[in-house]
Design a protein that fits this description.
438 residues; alpha/beta; Rossmann fold; six-stranded parallel beta sheet; 16 helices; 43% helix; binds nicotinamide-adenine-dinucleotide
């Protein structure tokens, strides 16, 4: 099939590359020329397992074109995916200006009927609005479908190629059939393609993200309570996780969720509720708790250092909002780093993949080190903000001898208390009693 994907960011790039890999001829459009130049050379603009190889393979097979020429892409494609950003506005609602600009361009350049698919996360009613907008600008039938993306950063390619389910929101059976054909190669494992009403599809994406953020926040709030009542959250987590109605997924306490989705989608859903006259009080609480969580670990550090972090030096391991991605958007580590800087501390950061983004964000205000142990040299303590696999079994003797005092503030509960006792560290984690040397 001839396809276009507008927006070659996280979702657009993965979508374009994976759809090219099943034999489609895909034009990927962006306005960011620097990004396009890199992609044309076959260099991935994001770190995502498996993506670089697929990109190179499909570029070589000439099934992928990267361009800023949206007019040509719209002429080329029967189906156009919209995968531009939907960042938060000042009031928390989704800013649809990138979606609107894309729809206007599609309507302006479409030489005949086209299927336009919103992959961007957009509020309920956006599909209907976009279809109406384009109908006023084009004489051709431009059918808008919703096809939310559920990929997880860190396993985006795998998630796209082996989705739990595909959701298509459509009011047009013929367009639905085209989408089913396009996605058939990805559901050979018999996962469902769910065809629902367009508005329901838009709601499904927000509902999924809001539910997951709520679940994470529930265990995080339980952890906060455990921390205050000398209960170990791990024992509680295991005790409830074996309940088949609850399960263990997304039940790991930490310093909060981050990334480009949950932090903006929760306020956007609250805004949708506001407009519809429904107070989304659960989500309000989720959002507020998540903003506050990193400060708990900073407070632990302050009390450990007798009220002040000024003049001290800290190593921070992990800036990415989660492992196996280089994405630092809204990462809890940012709040930790900002908090340390604001308290007058010096910050040395290490991350296996995200250092270029950390450098771009902070410049000379922090030191970015490729070697995690070098970041520890004569530092006052270590913060762990991302649960990268390689942080799980480090050389504890080296950490001890590098730090001025052996203290770890673990925002991801990477280590067990027993391990920390054995290696003789002072250790603060989330929802577990601190371990302090005698
Ligand atoms: N990142 C994720 O994990 C994820 C997962 C599911 C859904 N989503 C949703 O997908 C959408 C995109 O997210 P993302 O993380 O890929 O964003 P992103 O910021 O990484 O990418 C957006 C891209 O769109 C480009 N762009 C902006 N305006 C444009 C225009 N007028 N024409 C062409 N290109 C334009 C930008 O240059 C950028 O490259 C958002 O709505 C997001 O909520 C993201």
């Amino acid at each position: 099939m001839k396809l276009a994907v507008v927006g070659t960011g996280y979702v657009g790039l993965v979508t374009g590359v994976c759809l090219a890999d099943t034999g489609n001829d895909v034009h990927c459009v962006d306005i960011d020329r620097a990004k396009l130049e890199k992609l044309k050379r076959g260099e991935s603009t994001i770190f995502e397992p498996g993506l670089a190889d697929l990109l190179a393979y499909n570029l070589a097979a000439k099934r992928l074109t990267f361009t800023d020429d949206i007019a040509a892409a719209v002429r080329h494609a029967d189906v156009i995916f919209v995968a531009v950003g939907t960042p938060p506005s000042d009031d928390g609602s989704a800013d649809l200006s990138q979606v609107e600009a894309t729809c206007r361009a599609i309507a302006q350049h479409a030489p005949g009927p086209r299927i336009v698919v919103t992959k961007s996360t957009v509020p309920v009613g956006t599909g209907a609005w976009a279809e109406k907008l384009m109908a006023g600008l084009s004489k051709h039938k431009l059918t808008v479908l919703s096809n939310p993306e559920f990929l997880k950063e860190g396993s985006a390619v795998d998630d796209f190629q082996r989705p739990d389910r595909i959701v298509i929101g459509s009011e047009d059976p013929a367009a639905s059939a085209v989408m089913k054909e396009l996605y058939e190669p990805f559901v050979r494992n018999k996962r469902p393609i769910l065809i629902v009403r367009r508005a329901a599809s838009e709601m499904i994406k927000y509902a999924a993200n809001c539910y997951l953020a709520t679940r994470i926040s529930f265990i995080n709030q339980m952890a906060e309570l455990c921390g205050r009542t000398s209960v170990d959250i791990d024992e509680v987590r295991v005790g409830i996780g074996y309940d088949e109605r609850i399960g263990f997924q997304f039940l790991y306490p930490g310093i909060g969720y981050g990334g480009s989705c949950f932090p903006k989608d929760i306020p956007a859903m609250i805004a949708v509720g506001r407009e519809a006259g429904v107070e989304m009080s659960i989500l309000d609480a989720v959002h507020k708790l998540n903003q506050r969580l990193p400060t708990i670990l900073l407070e632990d550090a302050k009390s450990y250092f007798k009220g002040s972090l000024s003049g001290r030096t800290f190593a921070v391991w992990g800036v990415a909002f989660k492992p196996r991605t280089d994405d630092i958007r809204e990462a809890p580590a940012i709040k930790i780093i900002d908090g340390l800087l604001a308290a007058g501390a010096t910050v040395r950061v290490h991350d296996p993949k995200a250092l270029p983004h950390a450098r771009a964000k902070y410049g000379s205000r922090i030191q970015c080190l490729d070697d995690g142990y070098a970041a520890l040299d004569r530092a006052d303590g270590l913060f762990i903000c991302t649960e990268w696999n390689e942080f799980r079994s480090p050389d504890f003797a080296r950490i001890r001898s590098s730090l001025k005092q052996p203290v770890i503030f673990d925002g991801r509960n990477v280590f067990s208390g027993e391990l920390m006792r054995r290696h003789n560290f002072d250790y603060y984690s989330i929802g577990r009693p601190p371990i302090l040397r005698a």
